[in-house]
Automatic annotation (TrEMBL):
UniProt protein name: Ferredoxin
Domain of life: Bacteria
Pfam family, one: Fer4_15
Amino acid sequence: MSNRLHVDWTACDGRGLCAELLPEMLTEDDWGYPVARDDMTVPPALEPAARQAVNRCPALALRLVGADRRDA
Ligand code: SF4
């Protein structure tokens, strides 16, 4: 099952690092907050880049959630 990206909007500070690291999935709005290009399901080929984006998020606002979980 594919993971999904989840943004904790209460923690995200909108500097757009994740969109720089994962441009295939994310773009940013005028304030730098990430905007999904699709439904946030991570294709297997982008798992490594998604994990890097999660690990480098300075606000710990980005995480991967399993597709079978309902708290994404
Ligand atoms: S890297 Fe983290 S804090 Fe920065 S815009 Fe993305 S989710 Fe928000």
